[in-house]
Structure formats: structure tokens, C-alpha cells
Design brief:
Layout: E1 6-15, E2 21-24, E3 32-35, H1 38-58, E4 78-86, H2 87-94, H3 107-115, H4 120-134
Length: 137
């Protein structure tokens, strides 16, 4: 899996007696969440799935293959919903810790850039984001 992969996992939305939903993931038994309505439940499911995936990756554990819908049974008041997870977007939102990079540029480029007051870090970030966007990342 590369960092720009979009992952899809099934979730079971269970209707809660008091209203809203509680959500479980067949492929991540440790992962549960809830929401007061469908929109909030879906957002919470995306976030919970992201935390479960990040936890597994930090432990260097492999991610499970998504369970096929055809092998999942639901009862009345339960709904199978696919949760889409964008690892790159999640990392942008939650893992924005700065890291130092050493690079080399021609001296003339350095002098002209400094004379114009160009922020090297900001320019590099913008260029990398443009490059990622151009390749669909």
C-alpha cells in the first residue's frame, strides 16, 4: 500500500434505540464509534477507521483485506455501508509534524531567491503539493 491509496472497508451501522447509530467494523473488531445521525455517524466512522488503520501501521501489522459484502449478514435495523479512507488526506490532517530536509541548490539560485525574500520551506511545500496533485495524489 502506498501513502496515496484510498482504502474501502465495510462498516455495520446499527440503529440505536435512543436514536442515531453505533458502528462496528468486521475487519477491525477493536474499532467502534457512534453518531447522532447518519452524517455524523459516517464522519465518526471515517475517523475511527483512520485511527484503527494508523494504529495497525504504527505496530507494523498488515492491514486486513476488506471482507466482501456477500459474506456479511445484517439484521433489521443494521446497514452495511462502505467507508472510504484516504490515507494521504488523513496524514495531511493529522500528521503535520515538521521534519528537516537537507538539500542542495545552485548558489546563484540561492542568492536570487534570498534577495527576493522567498521562504524556502513554504516554496518547497507548495512545489511538493503541486507535484502530488499533478499525479493524482
Amino acid at each position: 500500500m502506498t501513502s496515496n491509496d484510498r482504502l474501502f472497508y465495510p462498516a455495520v451501522f446499527h440503529s440505536a434505540e435512543e436514536g442515531g447509530f453505533w458502528i462496528t467494523f468486521p475487519d477491525f473488531p477493536e474499532c467502534m464509534t457512534q453518531g447522532d445521525d447518519m452524517a455524523e455517524a459516517y464522519r465518526m466512522a471515517e475517523d475511527a477507521l483512520g485511527l484503527a488503520i494508523e494504529d495497525r501501521l504504527s505496530e507494523r501489522a498488515e492491514l486486513p483485506e476488506p471482507t466482501p459484502f456477500s459474506s456479511l449478514d445484517v439484521r433489521g435495523g443494521e446497514y452495511l455501508i462502505v467507508i472510504s479512507f484516504d490515507m494521504q488526506l488523513y496524514n495531511r490532517l493529522h500528521n503535520s509534524k515538521a521534519v528537516k530536509k537537507t538539500l542542495s541548490i545552485p548558489e546563484w539560485l540561492n542568492e536570487e531567491s534570498m534577495a527576493m525574500g522567498i521562504n524556502f520551506s513554504q516554496t518547497l511545500q507548495e512545489a511538493l503539493l503541486n507535484k502530488l496533485s499533478a499525479r493524482g495524489g
